[in-house]
Amino acid sequence: MNPRTWIIAGAIFGALGVGAGAFGAHALKERFKLPEAIERDLGNTYEIAVRYQMYHALALVLVGLVGLHSASVWVNAAGGCFAGGILIFCGLLYIYSLGGPKILGAIVPIGGTAMIIGWVLLAIAALGVVKR
Questions:
Q1: What is the pLDDT of residue 37?
Q2: Most buried by CB count within 10 Å: which residue of 27, 51, 72, 75?
């Protein structure tokens, strides 16, 4: 994939992360005070989703910058893992914190694992240890 695409994706996910944070801080403030929200710690869950989305939006920008200098299958794989991790990990945490089913908690680790793999792949790409 074109390295600029990863930078654009990171910027979009970053913008959405800021928007999600503002939405949680203002529009959902009262919802997170409800007894069920306190029991499920939904405000904290939502904050975790925003935080990890922002971290990995920046990681996508980093993937794009690395790709500008040394494009490889490893760089693209890292970007795919970060983007997939954002969608699965953060997306499902958003849904859960907004009242989604508890079973989503069983799927969330798949997204976290994708994020971890993304960091490992980015390291491999940057080291240039494994060639295409």
A1: 60
A2: 75
